[in-house]
Amino acid sequence: MLSKIAFFEADDRPDIAADRAHLLPALRRHLQSPSRDVTVAPTPGGTLGACYDADISGEKRFLKTHLPGALARANLAKEADILEHLYGNTIVLDRLEIPLADGTTRLCLMMPALVPQAAPMPPADAAALASACSDQLKGWQPDGLASFDHYLASAAEALKTLSSRGLLGPTSAIEVRRLIALLGDRLADLPEALCHGDFGPKNIMLQGGVRRVIDWEDAFRGIAGYDYLYWLTFMENRPFLQEAAFGRTGLSPDVERAILVLVVLLKSYLAILSGEHLKHAMSAEDRIAEILDLQA
């Protein structure tokens, strides 16, 4: 989530649609050869990645590259490293360097075409999947990971923005500020984990019926249990909030509530920056109040 926030906070952000269109012919040229037929088409959706569906001599593939800049490239390389650590060579089939007309190159990951889940996961399955990923990545220290302190700093800016725009009332703001401070005060004593950063339904796909967690570009060094609580904040998972918000992470209920509030606060801030909040059926105030009112 932090990379999306940083993108929309910047004044000089690139034109994503134009960049994707610029990459498309370069991808086709790179993949095409006399011995194989290739079709490449942009994949709908996605925020910061340039993604394409490809058919290479009858094999369905998913291609993912990045926006211009060293940081975007590093984040995609980080994702590839994590996917290989988790799944060997079954997800990242190849790393390609795509030459562009301006003399630069873009890293591109070639992956199999995965299948979305047909229905929301039960909370117990989501908690187990998040925990399994954390356990498999335990002790591994890839370079370039953000820390949880970055999330706390972004939360402070988010709270300031929502309050100043009248999108969060004074009473709620006081409680949110208390919970964010609680996370900062207890951070040193909380269990650490390599967190996904965007552990949501669209990033949990199926490969031969087996769940695979993809899109690790926002991975960071955070708190064990964060990813499961993040998963709960998606609108399609709201029905699970009352029954499954507490007691599945090993954290205390006040820390679990504080993480839920932090996530909803940052999501609301991102929606304001991108303008998406104007389309939301539920206000930031109501979403945060829902977390504050949960019975532990």
Question: How would you characterize this protein structure?
Answer:
By secondary structure, the chain is an alpha+beta fold. The protein folds into two domains: 8-113, Phosphorylase Kinase, domain 1; 123-292, Alpha-Beta Complex (Aminoglycoside 3'-phosphotransferase, Chain: A, domain 2), CATH 3.90.1200. 45% of the residues lie in helices and 18% in strands. It has helices spanning 2-9, 16-31, 70-87, 123-137, 148-164, 170-186, 226-232, 241-244, 253-274, 284-292; strands at 38-42, 50-56, 59-65, 94-99, 105-112, 115-116, 146-147, 192-195, 204-207, 210-213, 220-223. Strands 1-2-3-5-4 form a five-stranded antiparallel sheet. A hairpin with a 5-residue loop joins strand 4 (94-99) and strand 5 (105-112). It is globular, with a radius of gyration of 20 Å.
